[in-house]
Each structure stands twice: as structure tokens, then as C-alpha cells.
Design goal:
Keywords: Signal. By secondary structure, this protein is mostly helical. The chain has 16 helices and seven strands. Helix 2 packs across helix 6, helix 5 packs antiparallel against helix 6 and helix 7 packs across helix 8. The radius of gyration is 25 Å and the shape is globular.
């Protein structure tokens, strides 16, 4: 099969700790954890493991929001809830809101920050607040006023996005913010500053915006092994269709847009936020680089694994990884931003073996399969493409060169 994807994990040095295996037929959690051999790796490409929230950094050129308001999402939830039960399900309310079209656009409006809110000239929101405060709780008059306020506050955020050309009125309803919807909005925002390179051959979507989202590496746009994206389902960090939208993928997307893409809107376009890592923050998840008996640490809900995380060996490994990553943060972020502008490898035969850009390096490797020539191909490939973790190693490139036609 010509269109091969060879996924070989990044290899790096690891430190092994001796372990004493429990002999009891039914070990306790602590005994089982003590039986584990903890290893870790320090990757040569730490930017591939970058994990960053806006709360982890200081920003030297922050956005100054135009909209000054004390009206929050929680107030909106209360205003649209005629039954008065919104406070019983705060997490469920937020989950539904964040993953909805209107909720996604609400948060996007505040992420952009500089678009003036759209408030009718004959409306005074302060007067409306005072009217609501003067009504009886759960009264019909108060309910109608709160509904009016909710609609005004939502429109104040949606209309500027419409006016900016990021979303069309007919695209907005009470449905889920699907991959198709999110990709369309963000492509309109960033398509000029970060154009689509091409080559993403999804099985179930020819849409340029969706393919662009996959190419950029937007969180929530995982593709399954068969090449399906399921564009009409909610964002998810895992491939496949989604029946129950979760908040996490939308949250990760927000941080990515802010910190990896040029997420600061200015009068002249888009620019990067200038950031520094705050003291005590680690710009990756150390558990992704820790192994228990050769297997990825992974499942935090496994009680034995959780006990293993409390061992000195695990904590030492986590500390070593943090010490490796923290001083490399600026380089990691710079490289992640550069990678987000690159095309992707989708078909190794098309994108490497028969690509004229790499003909010289490949010919040299074919003539003399030295490590020097292999590294030349590898560096040329990773310099041009945004490789994922499984693709980004000289060993993987060697396997492609030796096996893909």
C-alpha cells in the first residue's frame, strides 16, 4: 500500500530505577506501585509536547478589551433560565454553552477583545439592570426583562463577529459548534495570515476550512486512521464521532489560538502575544514522557498508576523532565509557532519519496546510506513539514525511505 503512515515513537535516553517485585498473591495498591519500573525520556523535539494555558504565562503585550462589563456567562445562564434551576447544574450549563455555536462565538468575541460591542442606540443596559433589580424574584415582569437582557448581551457579542465577516447570520442557531462550524469561523479569521497549503485528503470532507484546521493542528480536529474527521460532530481530542460534547477540546482550542497562532487582533491585522513562562510552570505534561514497565503512564484513574505517581521514582522522573523543559520554553514556543505555519505529511510517497524538493537528499541517501545522509533527509523534511510526534524521528524517516515506494 503506497499511502503508508509509519508511526515510530521518538527515541531518547531513559533512566531506569531498580524495583522490588511484590510476592503476595494479591498485592495492595502500594505494593503494586512499588513493583513498577519507572523510566522516562527527554525528547530532542520538546515542542511536540508543548502544553500551555494562558494562566501559565505572563503577557508583555496584552490585549486591552473594548467591552467593559460585569455581565458574565453565569448571569446569562440565569437570565435565560425561566425555571430558576440554573444554579443546580453549573457544570452542565457551562459544558453545553461552551460547545454551542453561540457559546463558542461569545468566547471568541472576548478572545479577540477589540471589537466594539453592538448595542442599539436606544438601549441603556444600566437602566435595564436597575429595572430587573427592582422586580420581584421569579415574577413574569422580571422574567421578560431578563430574557430581553440576555438577548441584548448575546447580540452585543455576535453582531461584531458578523460585521467582521467571521460568521454569517444564517450560520448561527442553538446547535452544537461542530468541527465544520468552528473551522469555517477560524479560517475566515486566520486564512490570510496562515493560508492552507493543501494535501490533506480527508475521506469525508472536501471543505478547505476543515482541511486547513487539520493542517494547522487545531485541538479538537483529530483524524482517525482511515482519514475521517466527522465534520458535523463536536470538537474532541480523540478521533471519531462525538455524541456527548465536552468542554475540554474547546478550552484547548482557545489556548492554542491565543498562544500558538498569532492570536492578538490589532488594527493592522494579527500578531503574536509576547509571553514568558511563570515561575513554577512546566510547559508540557510530564506524564506523557514517563513509562511504567515500558508502557506510557497514561491512565490517571488507574489506582495503581495513581499510587505510582506518589513514588520517589516517579517524582524524580517528573522533576528531571521539568528541569529539561523549562529552560527550553522560549525555543519550544517559537518552534511550535513556526510548525503551525507549515504543511503536513499526509502521503509519504507523494510528500517525500516523489517530492522534487527532497530529490537531492534522497539521491545521496540511496547512494550511501550513511547516518549523515539520513540526517540530511530528516532535517530537510522536518524543516519543511510539521511532523507529529510519531513522524518526527530519523528512525521513522529511514523506515519510510527503505520501505515506501
Amino acid at each position: 500500500m503506497n499511502r503508508k503512515r509509519i508511526w515510530i515513537g521518538v527515541l531518547a535516553g531513559s533512566l531506569c530505577f531498580s524495583a522490588v517485585f511484590a510476592t503476595a498473591p494479591v498485592p495492595t495498591v502500594a505494593e503494586a506501585a512499588a513493583s513498577y519500573r519507572i523510566t522516562y525520556k527527554l525528547p530532542p523535539n520538546p515542542e511536540k509536547y508543548l502544553f500551555l494555558n494562558v494562566q501559565m504565562v505572563s503577557i508583555s503585550n496584552p490585549q486591552v478589551p473594548v467591552m467593559k462589563t460585569t455581565y458574565t456567562k453565569d448571569t446569562y445562564f440565569a437570565d435565560v433560565d425561566s425555571g430558576g434551576s440554573y444554579w443546580r447544574f453549573p457544570f452542565e450549563n457551562n459544558r453545553k454553552f461552551v460547545s454551542s455555536k453561540k457559546g463558542f462565538l461569545w468566547n471568541l468575541y472576548h478572545l479577540i477583545g477589540i471589537l466594539p460591542p453592538s448595542i442599539p442606540a436606544n438601549v441603556n443596559l444600566d437602566d435595564l439592570d436597575r429595572q430587573i433589580a427592582g422586580t420581584e424574584e421569579y415574577s413574569e415582569e422580571g422574567r421578560k426583562l431578563r430574557e430581553t437582557r440576555a438577548q441584548l448581551q448575546m447580540n452585543a457579542r455576535l453582531q461584531p463577529l458578523i460585521d467582521a465577516g467571521y460568521v454569517k447570520p444564517e450560520e448561527i442557531d442553538d446547535g452544537v459548534a461542530t468541527r465544520q462550524f468552528v473551522a469555517t469561523v477560524l479560517y475566515r479569521m486566520f486564512g490570510e495570515v496562515r493560508p492552507y497549503h493543501g494535501g490533506i485528503d480527508l475521506k469525508d470532507s472536501d471543505d478547505v476550512a476543515v482541511r486547513w484546521a487539520v493542517e494547522v493542528g487545531l485541538p479538537g480536529f483529530a483524524v482517525d486512521k482511515e482519514g475521517y474527521i466527522y465534520p458535523q460532530t463536536a470538537l474532541s481530542m480523540d478521533p471519531g464521532p462525538v455524541e456527548y460534547p465536552e468542554e475540554y477540546a474547546y478550552d484547548r482550542l482557545s489556548h492554542f489560538v491565543t498562544l500558538v497562532l498569532p492570536g492578538k487582533k490589532t488594527a493592522s491585522g494579527w500578531e503574536y502575544f509576547q509571553v514568558k513562562l511563570l515561575p513554577g510552570m512546566v510547559p508540557l505534561q510530564t506524564r506523557e514522557l514517563i513509562y511504567v514497565n515500558g508502557k506510557a503512564y497514561g491512565d490517571l484513574y488507574d489506582p495503581v498508576y495513581s499510587a505510582g505517581a506518589r513514588t520517589n521514582e516517579y517524582q524524580n522522573a517528573s522533576r528531571k523532565i521539568a528541569q529539561y523543559a523549562i529552560p527550553r520554553f522560549a525555543q519550544m514556543l517559537s518552534q511550535a509557532r513556526a510548525d503551525a505555519r507549515k504543511p503536513r505529511v499526509w502521503d509519504w510517497s507523494r510528500d517525500l519519496i516523489h517530492h522534487p524538493r527532497f530529490a537531492k537528499e534522497i539521491a545521496a541517501y540511496r547512494k550511501n546510506k550513511s547516518s549523515k545522509n539520513l540526517n540530511a533527509v530528516y532535517q530537510a523534511v522536518r524543516g519543511y513539514y510539521n511532523l507529529n510526534v510519531g513522524q518526527d524521528s530519523a528512525a521513522n524517516i529511514k523506515s519510510v525511505l527503505d520501505h515506501v515506494k
